[in-house]
UniProtKB/TrEMBL annotation:
Homodimer. It comes from Haloplasma contractile SSD-17B. HAMAP family: TIM_B. Keywords: Cytoplasm, Gluconeogenesis, Glycolysis, Isomerase. GO terms for biological process: gluconeogenesis; glyceraldehyde-3-phosphate biosynthetic process; glycerol catabolic process; glycolytic process. InterPro entries: Aldolase_TIM, TIM_sf, TrioseP_Isoase_bac/euk, Triosephosphate_isomerase, Triosephosphate_isomerase_AS. This is Triosephosphate isomerase. The active site is at 94 (electrophile), 166 (proton acceptor). The gene is tpiA.
């Protein structure tokens, strides 16, 4: 049985005061991490103040990092600093970073390898564009993204990786993939994992769906066989809606 994992991705939202209000409102009201993993992925400058106040069951994640530990990389964040800050997760390869900041499958892979050196759990994002969905290449696209991202990781590491399937056309658009459609592609990702790394690994990896996940659709999405969690943008910004998501099973 895979433990559900619901992660908020705040993207470039929130001031320090807003982040503090959020974490105080949320950290008393989430379920034990024996039942569900609750994660908040925040902008870098807010990470330390959130880690300090994360409470017993919320864990904090970053939204990106560099694959090098230090050097002449103006504006980038080192994995050493994330580890030192107490961050536990890092989102890698979000479609916004692929589209706007030159993230590639190769850099996602280097970052995934580096994340494990620093005890960070990667949340690896994959997903097709609308055109790819329409011309029937979704499976090919996610197959390549998944296998390239995980290249060189050990099977034990791959079991720890979280994969977030986020169809690009469903992000921030209010268009959710139907639960069946989301489950179908998450299930396909699991067959790719089984083909490459065996059933034992494929059964262990947690696959999230992301793209217009809201309190009203979380239950149905989470009831799907291959959907083990959600990566949530807009609905993760307010304590009420975030709590409704992470407490979907109460
Ligand atoms: O990109 C997302 C999470 O990473 C999804 O964003 P929305 O939930 O706002 O569609």
């Amino acid at each position: 049985m895979r433990k559900p994992i619901i992660a908020g991705n705040w993207k470039m939202h929130k001031t320090r005061d807003e982040a503090l209000q959020f974490i105080y409102a949320v950290n008393q009201n989430v379920q034990s991490d024996e039942v569900i993993d609750t994660v908040v992925c925040a902008p870098d400058v807010l990470l330390r103040c959130l880690v300090k106040r994360q409470g017993d069951y919320v864990r904090i994640g970053a939204q990106n990092m560099h694959f090098e530990e230090q050097g002449a990389f103006t504006g980038e964040t080192s994995p050493i600093v994330l580890q030192d800050t107490g961050v536990k997760y890092v989102i890698l390869g979000h479609s916004e970073r692929r589209a706007m900041f030159n993230e590639t499958d190769e850099t996602v892979n280097k970052k995934a390898l580096k994340a494990f050196e620093h005890e960070l759990t990667p949340i690896v994002c994959v997903g097709e564009a609308l055109e790819q969905r329409e011309n029937g290449t979704t499976n090919e696209v996610v197959d390549a993204q998944v296998t390239k991202a995980l290249n060189g990781l050990t099977n034990e590491q791959i079991k720890e990786v979280v994969i977030a399937y986020e169809p690009i056309w469903a992000i921030g658009t209010g268009k959710t993939a139907t639960p069946e459609m989301a489950n179908e592609t998450c299930g396909y990702i699991r067959t790719v994992l089984e083909r490459e790394y065996g059933k034992d690994v494929a059964d262990a990896v947690r696959i999230q769906y992301g793209g217009s996940v809201k309190p009203h659709n979380i239950k149905e999405l989470m009831s799907q066989e291959h959907i083990d969690g959600a990566l949530v943008g807009g609905a993760s910004l307010e304590p009420e809606s975030f709590l409704a998501l992470v407490n979907y099973n109460e």
